[in-house]
Fold this sequence. Notes:
The structure holds two protein chains of two kinds.
Chain A: H1 3-15, H2 17-25, E1 28-30, H3 40-59, H4 69-78, H5 83-110, H6 119-142, H7 146-160, H8 166-174, H9 181-213, H10 230-241, E2 242-244, H11 245-270, H12 293-304, H13 310-331, H14 343-365, H15 379-382, H16 387-398, H17 401-404, E3 406-407, E4 410-411, H18 421-424, H19 427-436, H20 450-461
Antiparallel strand pairs in A: 1-2, 3-4
Helix pairs in contact in A: 3-5, 3-11, 4-5, 5-6, 5-11, 6-9, 6-13, 7-8, 12-14, 16-20, 19-20
Chain B: H1 8-45, E1 52-57, E2 66-72, E3 85-92, E4 98-102, E5 113-115, E6 120-122, E7 129-131, E8 136-138, E9 147-148, E10 150-153, E11 156-160
Antiparallel strand pairs in B: 1-11, 2-3, 3-4, 4-9, 5-6, 6-7, 7-8, 10-11
The structure holds FE2/S2 (inorganic) cluster.
Residues 105, 107-110, 123, 125-128, 139-141 of chain B line the site of FE2/S2 (inorganic) cluster.
Amino acid sequence: xxxxxxxxxxxxxxxxxxxxxxxxxxxxxxxxxxxxxxxxxxxxxxxxxxxxxxxxxxxxxxxxxxxxxxxxxxxxxxxxxxxxxxxxxxxxxxxxxxxxxxxxxxxxxxxxxxxxxxxxxxxxxxxxxxxxxxxxxxxxxxxxxxxxxxxxxxxxxxxxxxxxxxxxxxxxxxxxxxxxxxxxxxxxxxxxxxxxxxxxxxxxxxxxxxxxxxxxxxxxxxxxxxxxxxxxxxxxxxxxxxxxxxxxxxxxxxxxxxxxxxxxxxxxxxxxxxxxxxxxxxxxxxxxxxxxxxxxxxxxxxxxxxxxxxxxxxxxxxxxxxxxxxxxxxxxxxxxxxxxxxxxxxxxxxxxxxxxxxxxxxxxxxxxxxxxxxxxxxxxxxxxxxxxxxxxxxxxxxxxxxxxxxxxxxxxxxxxxxxxxxxxxxxxxxxxxxxxxxxxxxxxxxxxxxxxxxxxxxxxxxxxxxx
Amino acid sequence: xxxxxxxxxxxxxxxxxxxxxxxxxxxxxxxxxxxxxxxxxxxxxxxxxxxxxxxxxxxxxxxxxxxxxxxxxxxxxxxxxxxxxxxxxxxxxxxxxxxxxxxxxxxxxxxxxxxxxxxxxxxxxxxxxxxxxxxxxxxxxxxxxxxxxxxxxxxxxxxxxxxxxxxxx
Lengths: 467, 169
Ligand code: FES
């Protein structure tokens, strides 16, 4: 016996580690759940492991001080060896984790794996999802650039709408009445201590449950879950047709995980981390705070919801979604699992995906935002270089009309396109609309002089197809 | 003594040990928990005291103009860096008459910009718009812009620093 082998046997004799772990990783799983549909949970875990590793590396270089965090990020990105790649991996790893977690959740919902006896798998998963969302948000805040500061204020304002305790929650979040030194320290503590600790805890619990109740078998239409007999059937199934998890089922997880990790690394090398915005100076108002891509749909939701009910939607909407997800297994924990027999489940997933993508697409163009950097109309577009039409066109540039209205392809998207407005409204109607506003347009009655008004109307009247 | 033959005295003895152990653990947790949780919750109760901050001489503001003024917030910590700075929109309405608006949109706190040509405050986030007097002109804000107190002091315009205005219901 080689001395290495002897040392190993000694170690195993004293610790019993392989004896304890071996049966766990080799536990039999249903042959049909060794499928490519079942790789997203492990891939989320791999992405999380990458987040831990890259996060620790970043903590070696990052300074969680409101006055210096920004400079330390510049330093990490531009001056350290590999710091740019590490930051890039942390950023894109977060994106990957959110995406994979979403797919994993959809898969579990579609195959109804949350039904008996796996209710707690789903519930612990919902907790993990909520924790991941908090990580994603706090991660954007500890990036501590201009957008981070304003996102933090927007978050505090949303918390402020909670009935009765709103102001307290807002103050708790930003660490006092103003954004500043306390804010970053607090978000840092959430991002690197509290939430990761909870994530470890719940991931451990989640995995323990997977071992305890087994991986769900791939559902077959016409084979409903009956809590009375399910456990027996499952036991018989894995006994008869089970395969060892490691390596017979796990190789797919490894292959997919390898692709995920490599993709993150490649993106981190090629694209790198997102560029830092301007410094986190709250007195610089030249800001357009837009969150990272995975929150853009929510950003659009905030802009589009009807103001009269927005407080309820803002506070109770997320609560309702959370509660629905949380209690899902109690709404139905038996019966058919196959998506072929659960048309509503398919419809709900489809609807969710469509509405999120829709909001997301709108959020990217943000038509409700004034376009402060819209290119002013040129003499060519105006079609005159003197006289009332010209003066009206210039007023259109200068009085802010252009930020919300487009003419000949230039301008904002908030209000109607006015390229051919002359065909649609009479001079009187135009005057009235400009003076009084309406339909989300401010009235300019108190702003414009009579001459400016009449110039503007003449200019707008000249916006016709024949023109 | 085996389990089966345990006396009622033994039973209460065991119960006593169970209770005392749990009680000791809980008391210790509560004792250390008060300062730990208290330190984390402190910002809820400990409010920074408002301070008057000078933002410029009276003569540096033109009557009728609305300009941005920057100043240091009410509770700057030594390591706050640029985050200690904050801003407001100051409107000199008359010789000695000023109005000061918070820069935070009353909707969700984004920084509103004064667009002088249009005489409107515009919010970049969700399209909130306000008139010159701070009242809502368009968009989702549920109320007008917040005001900060302004005063004249020894020829200086001063603004009373305040917490970020949080719109509640
Ligand atoms: S924060 Fe200004 S419109 Fe929403």
